[in-house]
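Worked example 3 (structure in, sequence out).
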């Protein structure tokens, strides 16, 4: 397939830092950040590169104090600042975790610790960190049903699955919580409520960094790869950036390095992973359609068909090329799967369909954004949840528009 240039290649390039529309407002003077900085200093961490700030488009984040060069170490957070399953095992919860059968999951250990420390209030040594964590979340599992219905199809299904999974997580953990009763004068049911566990679950799943731990018999076989990283987790996510982030075994610090340079007073972003749009749009107008779909299924071409910043994925275009084969070319399906060009006319037909699909989703997304706008005016109570969905839908729209532009460029080669 012909590769694009110009703006297309600029889109392909991923950067560590995204430019804010305007400078952030310094928030390092706020009491919660003063306390957090003191707490971090006691644990041998002082940051000279970044400061907490509030930005118009992203809210609270971290702003560069000085110009940063490509490859520069931005943050090196010592292991003593990280909240991991090791932290839990060293705490008062350790003996209860160690003896519980069947062994609890690493996730349950982290969530239990967060709920317990939050309940401890001023008595918790983790209070300075807990104070800067969100009080509520707008994860899909927290959304009201009428808001979930506004999500793109795949996200809607994920939100419903997530709600079921978290409820099962809570229900299956009640006996373990009951075993902790000797630690508390209050009834554990009032401390480890569903809402409390949901908050902890969202904290871990939205803010944890990857840090692999060796398997331990006191935990279930689920991967033990999460660590909460105070201060570092103030970095906002941007889908258009990449970052070199990992735990350094030699320095015993979780490190983040720049991928490109960054100007003074710009917001620093981290990317938690790519954001794709799942597309399952398979026309069914010819007599061989069922056979074509069977071929795609047999060769694993029926899933993960996406539009992205770089245009339609190779898998999506390949699937469309198979679906566009005429009766006279049907025997060439193996060549199509291998990436061979059957004819210019066939290439053009598949690109035209890809463009129509893309525009269909653009129109659908625009319509949903209008609906969300009306709902924000009518239901103030749901404003934060609707704003989250609006952000997701807006990002989706930008991705689709980028794909449409790239497809238009590809189509000109066959005009």
């Amino acid at each position: 397939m012909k590769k694009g240039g110009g703006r297309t290649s600029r889109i392909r390039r991923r950067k560590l830092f995204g430019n804010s529309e305007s400078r952030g407002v310094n928030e390092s003077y706020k009491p919660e950040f003063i306390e957090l900085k003191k707490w971090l200093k006691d644990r041998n961490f002082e940051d000279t590169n970044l400061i907490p700030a509030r930005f118009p488009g992203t809210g609270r984040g971290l702003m560069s104090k000085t110009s940063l060069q490509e490859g520069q170490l931005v943050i090196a957070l010592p292991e003593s600042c990280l909240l991991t399953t090791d932290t839990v095992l060293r705490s008062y919860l350790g003996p209860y975790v160690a003896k519980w059968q069947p062994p609890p999951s690493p996730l349950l250990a982290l969530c239990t610790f967060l709920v317990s420390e939050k309940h401890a209030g001023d008595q918790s040594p983790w209070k300075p960190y807990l104070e800067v964590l969100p009080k509520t979340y707008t994860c899909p599992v927290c959304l009201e049903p009428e808001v979930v219905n506004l999500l793109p199809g795949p996200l809607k299904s994920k939100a419903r699955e997530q709600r079921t999974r978290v409820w099962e997580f809570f229900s299956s953990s009640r006996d373990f919580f009951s075993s902790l009763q000797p630690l508390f004068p209050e009834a554990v049911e009032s401390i480890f409520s569903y809402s409390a566990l949901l908050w902890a679950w969202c904290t871990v799943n939205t803010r944890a960094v990857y840090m692999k731990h060796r398997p331990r018999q006191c935990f279930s076989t689920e991967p033990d790869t999460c660590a909460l990283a105070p201060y570092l987790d103030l970095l906002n996510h941007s889908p258009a950036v990449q970052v070199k982030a990992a735990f350094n075994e030699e320095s015993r610090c979780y490190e983040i390095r720049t991928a490109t340079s960054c100007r003074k007073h710009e917001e620093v972003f981290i990317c938690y992973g790519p954001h794709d749009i799942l597309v399952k749009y398979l026309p069914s107008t010819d007599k061989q359609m069922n056979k074509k779909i069977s071929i795609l299924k047999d060769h694993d071409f029926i899933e993960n068909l996406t539009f992205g910043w770089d245009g339609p994925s190779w898998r999506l275009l390949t699937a469309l090329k198979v679906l566009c084969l005429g009766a006279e070319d049907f025997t060439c399906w193996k060549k199509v799967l291998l990436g061979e060009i059957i004819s210019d006319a066939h290439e053009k037909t598949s690109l035209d369909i890809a463009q129509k699909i893309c525009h269909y989703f653009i129109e659908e997304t625009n319509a949903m954004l209008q609906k969300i706008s009306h709902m924000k005016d009518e239901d103030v109570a749901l404003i934060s949840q609707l704003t989250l969905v609006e952000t997701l839908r807006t990002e989706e729209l930008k991705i689709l528009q980028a794909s449409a532009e790239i497809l238009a460029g590809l189509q000109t080669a066959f005009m």
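Notes: The CA atoms of residues 88 and 168 lie 22 Å apart. The radius of gyration is 25 Å.
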